[in-house]
Amino acid sequence: MWKSRHRLILCWLVFMQALYPGRKTLEELARWTPASITTWRFRRLLKASYWNIHVLAEWWVQEALNTLPPPTDGTLFLVGDSSEKPKRGTQNPLAQKGRKSKHHPWFFGIRFALLSVNWDVYRFPVAFRLIRPKTPPEYRTENALFREMVNHFVPPPWATRVIVAGDAAYGSQENMQMVLKRDADDPVRRWGFVVAIALTWKTVEDKAIKDLVTYLPRQYDQRIRVPRLPGSTGCKTFWVYSTRLCLRHIGDVTVVLSKKGRNLGPKQTKILVTNLDEWVPRQVVGAYQRRWPVEVCQTQPIKIPWCPLRLFRQTRRHLRGGGKRENELDVHSFSRHNDFADQALGDDLLFCKRELGQIRAQQLAKGRGIVYYLLPMDALLPRLC
Q: Given this model, what pLDDT does residue 307 score?
């Protein structure tokens, strides 16, 4: 499986991604590695032709799902969204120009679809697909790529209920029918969706959802308080209206009209749809709030959480001095009373602390062009082959 010293270089790359608090560029990471681990070796590893990034990401996801503690209710949220990576080179075959709407600026870069999972205080991406320009014959729509990622996702054994969430861009007939089909084919767990839909949807009686949103009397709105995401305190206030409708091509669903203020108009109203008829509006709105972690995954780097890893934070200060709080991202946001991180990474953190002198010696040797022996990375990461 591994060629040359790619396994050792991959261990160093993962280790430095977790340890270094600054920018995650290859040039910056290579400054803190031994002299033999250079930038061009990192690039050669990542550009190796024998890599199958989707298989590797799937393996990492399954290992993480089996390692992290499951939720008490067995609910797993599967969230999809899209984003873009700005590029400047015009020769990139995947680069394209466009904008989300007339109110957004134009961009030139690579578009991609991202699928992430989250439960309790944990969240991480599980799959991604590049969105090609429309001119090549290999072009596939964003919703088609989303359905492919959801169909390939294998839930962990502890997941008794999987909720697929997305904004209005993913509220299509094919996506909802895909979730309903998977719910019918999976006898072990319940599959449901909580997505936003557009105003143009109609019921089987040919009544538009737009009329319900526009002409609904204000006195029918109900005020609810929804807890914030785990790791935050307090609640959010919403004004909602819930009803059961039979939509075209979908069937009977629960429609929830949600807005943040009572006097807001139809443009500020979210139309949420779910096939879970036993859920109340508070649960539907709370499930839709689970979309926010995927936005964080797109805009900020993934790192080890800040609060509970006390030994890790102390080791990092020994290595590089004090770091700024804004450079850290609470990817998992462990609670202060949860010692899972210390238990899971205890051996590794003690190893890092024990080898501080060796790491400093290697940094000094690299600065002077002297090559010293490498750290025993096999003791730090699990065997990959």
A: 34
